[in-house]
Specification:
Layout: E1 3-4, H1 6-9, E2 27-33, E3 38-39, H2 47-61, E4 71-73, E5 79-81, H3 95-100, E6 101-106, E7 111-112, H4 118-134, E8 137-143, H5 155-162, H6 168-174, H7 183-191, E9 196-197, E10 210-211, H8 213-244, H9 251-274
Parallel strand pairs: 1-5, 2-6, 2-8, 3-7, 4-6
Antiparallel strand pairs: 4-5, 9-10
Helix pairs in contact: 8-9
Length: 279
């Protein structure tokens, strides 16, 4: 969470004793708010100015002891500490409602910028989870309008709240065109797609210039078989030649023996590889 503490955004000291009123029990959950007035987005280095402006409006205009919200979230996803986790907010409508739930404001308005940014929704989710884990607060989640007559937090924010306030990344994942693919779909797409160029010496290169993976494996298998046959034949020939040399047999007899050994080895290897027992 990109938390901006009161000291970091330059908060005024809250008035006592009201501003120091603690919660008397664990909170039920979190209520989301919007400004309810026109709002124009701004560079992030001006967001703390606006938060200070809100605090001044609440303290000097409304007569409150501090900014009314527990936390405030700008469009850049930063979470500004308002009254925080321990001091009771004053934004939910009345004392009982303030006592019941935390109040988290998103800096969007009733006109101008009315749709929260993805970064802002992510920051708001951070604030909700912070309230739940550190508050403590329960899992209940709603808008200011729940239990109080107001349009707050606006239709866009409220619609997000009613879906459970998911992070934008989760929403994008649901819209991913590959999200519904099974492992078999992915396997077929990769394994059965012609994509690799066939070897130049392939017998069917004119009719099948691009090979699927299984075609490549078959070709490799055939080439290995051919090499195995050749190596076995040469090995047999060498053994025969070694047995004949120096034994007083003439050259013609040696050549005939070598040729016969090669032929016998080729036949034997071919049978061993392609026969029924080769599997």
């Amino acid at each position: 969470m990109k938390l901006v503490t009161r000291a970091q955004w330059g908060a005024r000291a809250y008035r006592t004793p009201n501003g120091a009123t603690p919660y008397s029990q664990a909170r039920r959950g979190v209520k989301l708010h919007y400004l309810g007035t026109p709002y124009t987005d701004r560079p992030h280095d001006q967001c703390d100015d606006y938060v200070r402006q809100l605090q001044a409006q609440h303290m000097d205009g409304n007569g409150w002891s501090d900014v009314g919200y527990s936390f405030l979230v700008c469009t850049h996803g930063y979470v500004y500490e308002g009254r925080g986790l321990k001091r009771r907010n004053s934004a939910n409508g009345n004392t009982a409602l303030n006592e019941q739930d935390y109040a988290v404001l998103l800096l969007v308005g009733s006109s101008g910028l009315t749709e929260p940014t993805d970064a802002q929704l992510d920051g708001a989710r951070d604030a909700i989870e912070h309230c739940r884990t550190e508050g403590p607060a329960g899992t209940w989640l709603g808008g200011h309008r729940d239990g109080y007559a107001t349009a707050c937090p606006g239709d866009a924010v409220y619609a997000w709240v009613k879906t459970g306030a998911p992070r934008p990344a989760a929403q994008q994942q649901e819209e991913d065109p590959m999200a519904g693919l099974t492992k078999r779909d992915i396997f077929d797409a990769v394994w059965k797609t012609d994509a690799l160029a066939a070897p130049k010496d392939a017998a069917d290169i004119k009719t099948n210039p691009n090979w699927q993976p299984q075609s490549i494996l078959r070709d490799v298998q055939a080439r290995v078989r051919s090499l195995t046959v050749t190596v076995a034949a040469q090995s047999a020939a060498i053994n025969t030649l070694a047995a004949k040399v120096g034994s007083g047999v003439d050259t013609k007899t040696v050549v005939q023996a070598v040729e016969k050994a090669i032929a016998d080895a080729v036949i034997k290897v071919d049978i061993d590889i392609t026969g029924p027992d080769s599997a």
